[in-house]
Amino acid sequence: MIRGIWAVCERELRSAWRQPIAWVVLAIYLFAHGLFFVQLVEEYSALSFQMLTSGRSLPDFTLVDRVCRSLLVGDTLLFILLLPALTMRQISEESRSGTLDLLMSYPLSEAQIILGKFFASGFVVWVMVCLGTAEVMALGLVGHLEVDVVWLGASGLFLYGLSVLALGLVFSAWSENQILAFAATLLAQLLLLLIGFWGIRVDPPFDAVLRYLNFTGHVGHFSYGVLRASSVFFFVGLIVFYLYCASALLARRRWHEES
Amino acid sequence: MGPGRLSAAMIEVEGLTHRYGPVTAVDGLSLRVERGQLVGLLGPNGAGKSTTLRSIAGLLTPTAGRVRIAGFDLARSPLEARRCLGFLPENVSLYLDLTVIEFLRFVGRARGLSRAQAWSEADRVVPVTGLEMVRNRIIGYCSRGYRQRIGLAQVLVGDPPALVLDEPTVGLDPAQIADVRQVIAELARDRAVILSTHILPEASRLCDKVLILNHGRCVGFDELDRLAEGLHQESDVEVVVDDLPSHVDWSGAPFDVVEQIAIRTMTRLRLRLTKSDRIGDAVAFLVSQGLSVEEVRPRRAGLEEVFLQLVHEDPSPEASK
After folding, report:
1. Contact state of B59 with A105 under an 8 Å Cβ cutoff
2. B221 and B242 inside one domain
């Protein structure tokens, strides 16, 4: 089982770094993340200076509260836009080019193929989160930084990223057109974002359900340094559900291929 | 002892049926291919060849019927069955961004081999398929002929006892076709091979048996000679003569006995007789014309003739309703 997953993952990683898509996604993320970061640090410095000159203090005025948390919100939105690009071609392109036939003729289960691809794109996201977090950690050199909270926030962002990748694989297995797979993943994420916002407006008991489905809320818990089992279960449950759907869609090809 | 050793046939297909909605692409096909046998799968376009091969390779689940590879039922033990099968799809698509050796190592890993085994298997199949020159070349930069060889090489990784090759020589130049045929002939020595092809001389040269599909049905499955015998028209004979004189008075031929005379070469005639037991009369006429008759033998149909006759004799499903 593991050998097959690793075989697919290794090949995906080789291809990912030899094609521009992973590099472009990484470059755009680091550029946008860097811009947010510089902007937030500048604002923080300006407010610090004002507080020093005015002698007044603001509540929750820490690097984590003013820089890291806002940065995490920005990263979450960036992930909605960027991560579908990592998964859009993973199955749809193989299906279009015909390499999926070869892959599915090997003694690999659909779950092994999906997991191999998921772990490969997950590694790219892990690199993104690590590089982004390393930038934030640099603040610790010039000020007091709650390192545990930063790492927990990064873990939340990583879990969220994995859930986007798993959803992206569902749409990549669903359509042979990678642009369609990208657009469907993006729209589904935006819809989930909207559902979260509707949770504030609807009446009980639906508000609780919709609030639970709000992924920004769960990432928020991580960013406050709170490790909630419900948030971990939310993301892990979503990932398992999406990966199961992607495997089922892939298996369906053996039953419903057109002549 | 695994099922593979218990079963003599490496590829067994029983009552394979595949329907696409109202269209029956394959209808109750059965065949057995044993180790050391190379079976050619022939048929006109749309006969169901690719559907059959894809079902055997596990890419399609048949509507009915059973496929066993090395004794493993494809429906019940799909991974074990696929481990014993190498499949070369038509117009093989490869991972163009990998080098040849990286790709073959990946195939080994995907076939469940350890890293060391996968590397040694990749090293083993490279010379077998003549890929030494392009071993470290990115597949995207390889010629079509080499890509076809890479496709054949991936089939061999893990040494599966059963191979399914869908149009392995399509799109190659004559030299490449000859090379690939030679590789296939060598592969078939100790494996069960099913080869789908449109090129009839290729099938007659390489295959021990041919299976002719038409409208998804098997219209002939046997050794080529036996199929030809089955079709052999007793009234057709070939006559070998010493030399054909320039002036033969054909008008005096006994046309009540000889329906048709065709001069094939300067030493070979083909006669179609009205009655096969009147061959003596026909030969007597030839002798009377000064021809020295050396041999008279029943004419054997070639694969092309067998193919065309079997396909044309088979009514379409619509017509037979």
Report:
1. yes
2. no
Note whether ipTM > 0.90 here. no
Find residue B99's DSSP bridge partners: B138
Chain B contact for A19, CB < 8 A? yes
Task: Give the residue from B171, B200, B229 where a domain finishes.
Answer: B229
In a domain, residue B85? The reply is yes
Q: How far away is chain B from the Cα of A248, in angstroms, using its nearest Cα?
A: 14
Alpha carbon separation from A31 to A37, A135, A181, B74, B153 (Å, rounded): 10, 12, 25, 50, 44
CA distance A220 to A157: 9
Q: Could you tell me which residues are beta bridge partners of residue B66?
A: B14
User: How do the pLDDT tens digits run along chain B, 321 residues long?
Assistant: 345 444 468 899 999 998 888 888 888 889 999 988 899 998 888 888 888 999 999 998 888 999 999 989 998 999 999 999 999 998 888 999 999 999 999 999 999 999 999 999 999 999 888 888 999 999 999 988 889 889 989 999 999 999 999 988 876 778 878 888 888 888 888 889 999 987 777 777 788 888 888 888 888 777 777 766 665 555 677 778 877 777 777 777 777 777 777 777 778 777 777 776 777 877 888 888 788 888 877 766 666 666 666 666 666 555 544
The b-or-e profile of B304-321 (16+ CB within 10 A means b, else e) is eebbebbbeebeeeeeee
Select the residue of B59, B95, B112 nearest A101 (Cβ to Cβ). Answer: B59
Residues B278, B153: one domain? no
DSSP character string of B138-194: BGGGS-HHHHHHHHHHHHHTT--SEEEEESTTTT--HHHHHHHHHHHHHHGGGSEEE
Interface test with A, best of B97, B121, B141, B157 (most A CBs within 10 A): B97
For residue B105, give the chain A residue with the closest CA.
Answer: A7
Q: Does residue A28 sit at the B interface (CB-CB below 8 Å)? A: no
| Domain of B176, in residue numbers | 2-229
Q: What is the CATH number of the domain that holds B272?
A: 3.30.70
Residues B196 and B253 in one domain: no
B312 domain residue, yes or no: no
Question: How many domains, in total, are found in chain B?
Answer: 2
The pTM assigned to this predicted structure is: 0.81
Q: B269 with B200, same domain?
A: no
Say whether both B146 and B291 belong to one domain.
Answer: no
Residue at a domain's end among B229, B257, B278: B229
Residues belonging to chain B with any Cβ–Cβ distance to chain A shorter than 8 Å? 20, 23, 25, 51, 54, 57-61, 78-80, 82-83, 85, 87, 89, 91-95, 97-98, 102, 106-107, 109-112, 114, 154
Residue from the list B54, B59, B110 with its beta carbon closest to the beta carbon of A108: B110
**Residue B33 resides in a domain:** yes
Residues B14 and B154 in one domain: yes
Helices (H) and strands (E) in chain A, counts: 12, 0
* Nearest CB partner across the interface for B23, out of A103, A104, A259: A259
In a domain, B321, yes or no: no
